[in-house]
């Protein structure tokens, strides 16, 4: 009898060297295999998620409003998890694509403010009913999104009021980044240093220093959040390993 295969999660990345980071680590530890696709490099997206347990669309340096073919293709593809009611998580760009797909708006702050560094968020009553949220999260974006019609806001913030939402039973979007390992954050700080002069951005030393204070809480939240969305086959909520 052949060994039982782990359920697969579709992972959508947007650069050649991009990584699913901590999200990938936790999904694998939770009993899933990863099916990684990179649409900007020509990888196709499946016509159905019949053979997947869900999907995660990650961030990237592009805008959800860009006219690139792969951006339009990915945004249109989101009809697949929505129609099939499969667990879906959009992170930053992925959440913004979901908002555009649902008829919302993705745009920058009216005063040009960005969120690049660690910023406080506030869960809504609906968010608090689901799980305990961290006080601070890591951000790296110049655009935010409106709340799509029919969506439930789960967390907000001052400059960008829509930080996390749920649409229907199984579609989720978050503006912030809980997936970064320490090595990933160091790369982002080096490669994104030119953005630290933008209004509202924090300096690189504050990105790395804040990690020592707040990352443990952010990771604990991520473990519970992924369990909530994907129902990991093997995962105990206190299995935080400090990665």
Automatic annotation (TrEMBL):
Keyword RNA-binding: no
PROSITE patterns per record: GATASE_TYPE_1
Domain Glutamine amidotransferase: 49-181
Keywords: Glutamine amidotransferase
Short name of any one Pfam family annotated for the protein: GATase
Domain of life: Bacteria
Record protein name field: Glutamine amidotransferase
Organism whose genome encodes this protein: Aquibium pacificus
